[in-house]
């Protein structure tokens, strides 16, 4: 059973994009809740300081491990049904995490954040659903950017939920925020049910379709995937460590949550015009600008530990993620033919979120061992390396593939 007709009408395209913006707004609010509170709840429930960020790391791991199964499900049953399953698991994850807090059970809380990973994988896939629902390749970057605007609403919803509900149940601090996370996923269900997306591409290899290993070896794919890995990986790594670093430097939980809110606002606010910037200046230029802003965030973080340094660095980090990750996603569309789309997108997200998971597992230990300054200094050479590869790839003649 397919989601809809193979070629959506213009009105259906607008309707789908509007629904994707709304579902992105609700689904995208879950990660700020998990990331803002996961480390703090971990400190409260775990007897090992270096294990405090484990709940956030397990969320990232769950997301990474879910990318390939989620892509397989989307291919088999369509994006809409897979997204409905993801939202149901989002409801369950919030309930389990809250139950873990009420029982002072660190393992149960970690299970709840892990279950949120599948929902997260589906939410991350909304940008690819936006590509599927527009007919013209020239509109792909604009469609991606438009759906990511939903993250701007999520940037307000997620941190404000933390602020309003963290003490809602005085006997179990923070549990109210995770019950609210479950409610947000529940609200997304009827919106997802209204989606009418194009059917999955045929599973049989089309004429000229290449093996995945061949695509993965191409310079185009390697640069696009690496830019996405570094843009998202560094952002997630630093965002995971930031709330604990802020509280450790004497700032309040509320100030840490507001820092995450400003960060997530910066992540998605440029989406109103990122697509137009890519159309005017090119995918590589905007991706490179994003990486430069990520480096600037690290430089600002090294200048001090005042609230303005933390918030300013988080804002620059969010802006850099937007340009770097949307630019890298747009670069990825150059790498595949229509019959190759699903497997290339799944491999890219597995690499991106697998790296994010590995990085987040080390964030708590690194923060404990080398400190906030050491983390920020260590990411600068990585950014320089990807910028060099991006510039090098721009000078190479690019192989042309049929665009979806």
From TrEMBL:
Keywords: Membrane, Transmembrane, Transmembrane helix. The chain crosses the membrane at residues 17-37, 57-75, 82-100, 106-126, 147-166, 178-197, 223-248, 260-279, 286-307, 313-332, 344-364, 370-392. Pfam families: MFS_1 (PF07690). One of its GO terms (molecular function) is transmembrane transporter activity. It comes from the Bacteria. SUPFAM superfamilies: MFS general substrate transporter. The keyword Lyase does not apply. Residues 220-404 form the Major facilitator superfamily (MFS) profile domain. InterPro entries: MFS, MFS_dom, MFS_trans_sf. This is Predicted arabinose efflux permease, MFS family. It comes from Oryzisolibacter propanilivorax.
């Amino acid at each position: 059973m397919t989601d809809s007709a193979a070629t959506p009408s213009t009105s259906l395209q607008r309707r789908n994009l509007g629904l994707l913006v709304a579902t992105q707004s609700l689904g995208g609010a879950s990660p700020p809740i998990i990331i803002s509170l996961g480390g703090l709840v971990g400190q409260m429930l775990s007897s090992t300081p270096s294990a405090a960020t484990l709940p956030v790391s397990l969320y990232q791991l769950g997301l990474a491990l879910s990318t390939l199964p989620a892509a397989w499900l989307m291919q088999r049953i369509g994006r809409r049904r897979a997204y409905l399953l993801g939202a149901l698991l989002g409801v369950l994850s919030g309930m389990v995490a809250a139950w873990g807090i009420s029982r002072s059970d660190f393992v149960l809380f970690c299970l709840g954040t892990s279950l949120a990973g599948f929902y997260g994988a589906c939410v991350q896939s909304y940008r690819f659903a936006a590509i599927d629902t527009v007919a013209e390749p020239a509109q792909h970057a604009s469609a991606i950017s438009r759906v990511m605007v939903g993250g701007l609403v999520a940037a307000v919803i997620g941190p404000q939920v933390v602020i309003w509900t963290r003490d809602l149940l005085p006997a179990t601090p923070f549990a109210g925020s995770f019950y609210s996370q479950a409610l947000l996923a529940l609200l997304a269900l009827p919106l997802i049910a209204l989606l009418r997306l194009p059917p999955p591409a045929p599973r049989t290899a089309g004429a000229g379709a290449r093996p995945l290993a061949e695509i993965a070896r191409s310079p185009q794919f390697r640069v696009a995937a690496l830019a996405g890995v570094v843009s998202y990986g560094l952002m997630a790594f630093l965002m995971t460590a930031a709330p604990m670093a802020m509280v450790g430097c004497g700032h309040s939980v509320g100030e840490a949550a507001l820092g995450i809110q400003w960060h997530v606002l910066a992540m998605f606010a440029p989406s109103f015009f990122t697509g137009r910037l890519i159309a005017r200046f090119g995918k590589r230029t905007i991706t490179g600008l994003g990486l430069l802003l990520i480096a600037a965030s690290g430089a600002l973080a090294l200048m001090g530990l005042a609230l303005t340094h933390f918030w300013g660095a988080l804002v620059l980090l969010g802006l850099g993620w937007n340009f770097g990750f949307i630019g890298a996603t747009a670069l990825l569309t150059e790498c595949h033919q229509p019959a190759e789309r699903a497997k290339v997108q799944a491999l890219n997200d597995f690499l991106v979120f697998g790296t994010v998971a590995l990085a987040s597992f080390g964030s708590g230990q690194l923060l404990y061992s080398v400190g906030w300054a050491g983390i920020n200094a260590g990411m600068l050479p990585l950014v320089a390396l990807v910028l060099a590869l991006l510039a090098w790839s721009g000078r190479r003649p690019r192989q042309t593939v049929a665009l979806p």
